[in-house]
Amino acid sequence: MKHVSIASVEATPAGTEHFTGSVSMKMLAEVDAPQGSALLVAFERGARTFWHAHPNGQFLYVVEGEGRTATRDGVVTPLHPGDLVYAAPDEQHWHGAASDRSVSHLALSFGDTEWFEEVASAEPRD
Fold first, then answer.
1. Residue 110: domain span
2. Residue 4 resides in a domain
3. How far apart are CA 87 and CA 71, in angstroms?
4. How many structural domains are present in the chain?
5. For tag attachment on the chain, is the N or C end more exposed, with fewer CB atoms within 10 Å?
6. In this structure, is residue 9 part of a structural domain?
7. Would you say residue 35 lies in a domain?
8. Is 101 left (phi over 0), alpha (psi -120 to 50) or beta?
9. Contact predicate 22/48, CB 8 Å
10. Residue 3 falls within a domain, yes or no?
11. What's the alpha-carbon Rg for the chain, to the nearest Å?
């Protein structure tokens, strides 16, 4: 068993190749079978991921702030502290902060993330 104190993990900036705006991450754990990770991700106002999918799914648990997530069907869902989101295997989606609020979430992702294009500015945000 491994115990991690979130306060002791250093945050690193997320790269601009998969995120817009100011985003930082704390790697909390990596999993071997199935391969996965636990990340605490902090999005500043308006920041978000690019479109992406996870071959074995992803859970998001909102810790603080206000966020958004969407799938390719165009439905944008608001996110609030305590919300749990499940992205099914290979479901293309994005997530991030509301336009006027920051958000932090715990992301439990399984399998190597497959990244796609940036979310078009014309796509619904809020």
1. 19-115
2. no
3. 9
4. 1
5. N
6. no
7. yes
8. beta
9. no
10. no
11. 14
Q: What is the pLDDT of residue 126?
A: 54
The candidate with the shortest Cα–Cα distance to 78, out of 99, 54, 108, 47, is: 99
One-letter amino acid identity for 20? T
Give the domain CATH number at 60.
2.60.120.10
Least confident of 5-19, 24-38, 44-58, 64-78: 24-38
0.85 surpassed by pTM: no
Residue predicted with more confidence, 121 or 30: 30
E-only strand ranges, the chain: 12-13, 19-20, 23-32, 35-43, 48-49, 52-53, 58-65, 67-71, 76-79, 84-87, 93-97, 103-110, 114-115
Q: Vertex 22, ends 7 and 60: CA angle to 5°?
A: 60
Query: Cα dihedral angle (10, 67, 56, 114), rounded to 10 degrees?
Result: -80
Owner of token pair 């932090």: 104
Cα(6)–Cα(106) distance, rounded to whole angstroms? 11
Tell me which of 92 and 126 has the higher pLDDT.
92
Report the DSSP pairing between strands 48-49 and 23-32.
Answer: unpaired
Averaged pLDDT score across all residues of the chain: 90
